[in-house]
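Format notes (please read before filing issues)

Several people have asked whether sequences and structure tokens are stored in separate files. They are not. Every record keeps both together, in the order shown below: the sequence lines, then the token lines. Line labels are part of the format and must not be stripped during preprocessing.
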Amino acid sequence: MSPLSSPNSGAIPATEPLLAEGCSPEALFDEWLSIKKDGNNGLRPNTVSQYALEGRRLRWFAALTGKPFQHWEREDAKRYLATLRSPPPGALKANAGRNTDDWRPLRGPLSASSLRQSRLIAGGFFNWLVDVGVLLRNPFASMDNPVSVSGPEVPSRALSSLQLDAVFEAISRRPAEAFWDRIRAARDRMVITLAFRTGLRASELVRLVWTDFEQRQGPQGAYWTILIPTPNKATMAPVRCDAAMEEIARFRRTIGLSPEPRSTDNTAVIPAIPGGKRLAGKHHDSLSVQRLLRRPVTTRQGLYVIVRRAFSDAKLLLLSRGHVEQATGLNGASTHWLRYSAAVHLLKEGQPAATVQRFMRLKGMNAVIRQVDMKGDDEPPELDGDLALRK
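Then the structure lines:
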């Protein structure tokens, strides 16, 4: 049986690699990451950081086992993922800086979703090693889905209609006796709608300004888009946002703005709610409110706090009504779940996969399509707006 067809054939170095046999793990991974960063689509800074961290973990494991990447087998790949899932004490350190001598690869065991991400990055790196002739076979290829490697099944990241309805109802049920509580609730509802109806990434949401909104004319009339920088920052890509405009208009009216965005607007799209003495007064005219809402939420963590509160409130609401499984399904829910749910629900509504892929600006749709198959015939949520994706 040939080395290519046998999963237990031992080491699998290539006979004539394009890179030197003695090339260090550091040099190999750095070369791959450099190629990824210089590609046509580029990599976002946070993605580069994730890749770099995974590379450091891979090099740490190679040094720990004494096996360079050129000699990794499928069992090495499995042991690597198992180590990330259940690390030894020597691999853990809570707050070790990245450039310190006592750096450790993990702060704790990786979650199922983080383990999946590690496997995808490592698999991409080893695919490149095969392409350049360092290996004959990717040790991460044909491996069971990371769900089975990591133990319990990973819950769906696609929110059901019941969960989404609970999110919006929970926001509406918040105590809103104070003026700024109503502002906060209107903002949070808009954030959830904007993320779900446009599929924007968290990093894109926090960079939005009102001048990014643009009304265009199409064969069927006027429609709204949001202009988002492409990964290489060379051009701006329009993302259809008609389905979110009713909620955006509701929020803008709440703070005294016109329903439709204007280039002269000075408030933040996703404003940070001010605190302290500035909120003490009972009378709030529109101009003073707008001045207080100029400071935006600028970090993904800030956006995450907004979304997590909404999910937590929805979980409590679902539990109070006996929907234990649906409530438990919100454990670990994050901002990215809204983007993922956008794609899943569009597919369930019958939109072609190619159309959804363009709308979401995705390179591939396999994972999303698998999620639709897992979820079955769950009905899409009934939210305000139209999800038509016409150009």
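For reference, the curators noted about this record: Residues 161-375 form a domain with the hpI Integrase; Chain A fold (CATH 1.10.443.10). The first helix runs from residue 25 to 37.
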